[in-house]
């Protein structure tokens, strides 16, 4: 899904018939025009954007904590209930996502699309990220001595660590754990509604923030944004090649598989929505010969937890913005992006505007201002189309991998079930 798109991809405000991404793009164009033509007026719009940013910050900690905890709880339940199939699935999901994030970081280091931009730095990098590597401090900083204090100060990584531990504990707590889970589900449901309301104000916020930024930066920023999208599609092409190689190594014919799933891939590209492709994708994979048991398990799970294209984009955007603020990405900083994106991307998978939340988490973890999201929000639709296509193709590969690595056990169970 898009950085500023909720689960249905459309605004629920006064422009119900206009897709939210169109509204945001219009806000981007108008904001850039106002910033170039009326710079003094554009600078006065900053408080409007700041209100949006404060609202985003307000929801990040409770939303991420509830979403990650419930996501880990669900994963723990699946691992226990589904055994080897669940283990293989999640190991694959995390490996694929880690590769995607690493590729995003690497391409930024090669092409540096933010070169020439110098945004005003309003945040600070945590001390252990801007100096030489101290592995003891690096890992000790992940464990919160006081989780309430960590949340209050918006320390994302310690909060994520506690959420993971808490989710695993709930998955082992039996009936008592389910009571807490219901409370968290209620909190998350309320946060969904609140997130939708905030995200629907994004067009106005993007207009104000882009106008303010362009008034200070001029055309240099716009050129860099175009370069960013170009580099992103180079990366998406690399990911497609990697997936085709994996398909070949699994013993399938890459071009034949690509041809079979072309319909959901085209749907994904044209709509920028993975959900639209799910029914078609399931039918095609079952017709390919993959047992229904594998398809029914992998695809719905993969559409929530295996968003390789989205993770790649989040990593690229974060690196782009870090360099735009004049921050040299040290190895610890890159590891922070990798680990934070890996956890946050899975935990917030079903959150409306999930990428918006993940970006806020990543920027906060590096000490960058959250308002930087607006810089890339207006162009995100162009990248989102390609990233969603990669999400769908990645889940095709995941289904093939589980079918291959699951062995006869999965097929035999399916066959027995069908016979019964």
The structural domain count equals 1
Q: What is the arithmetic mean of pLDDT?
A: 78
Order of SSEs:
HHHHHHHHHHHHHHHHHHHHH
Number of strands: 0
Radius of gyration: 21 Å
Major beta sheet summary? none
- Indicate the structural class: mainly alpha
- Span between termini: 39 Å
Which helices and strands appear, and what pairs or packs with what?
Blueprint (H helix, E strand, L loop, with lengths): L19 H18 L1 H5 L2 H37 L1 H28 L15 H4 L4 H6 L6 H6 L3 H16 L2 H26 L2 H16 L1 H31 L4 H7 L1 H10 L2 H15 L3 H14 L2 H17 L6 H17 L6 H12 L7 H5 L2 H27 L1 H12 L1
Task: Describe the protein in words.
The chain is globular and about 65 Å long. It has 21 helices and no strands. The model is unreliable at 1-13, 122-133 and 411-420 (pLDDT under 50). It is mostly helical and 420 residues long.
Structure characteristics:
about 425 residues, mainly alpha, Proton glutamate symport protein, about 80% helix, disordered N terminus, disordered C terminus
Short account of what is shown:
With about 425 residues, the protein is mainly alpha-helical.
